Please model this.
Amino acid sequence: VAEVARMPEFEGKILLVDARDNRNLDLASRNHPGWKTVDALAVNVYDVVDRPYLVVSEQALARLVEVLGS
Model:
């Protein structure tokens, strides 16, 4: 997340998808008004379409593949 915050092309709205138990990510995202964090199982179409950037952790991606692949 720190790397994303420093990248100039990631200005504006970003959707961060990770496990809900990632307290540090929740706290860090509060400092950026355009960032939204959601659990992998709580992702919805509006959030994805509303934000030009989507950052997904490996754990969240594995959960999404597991749930949507079945």
In short: DSSP finds four helices and three strands in the chain. The mean pLDDT is 85.
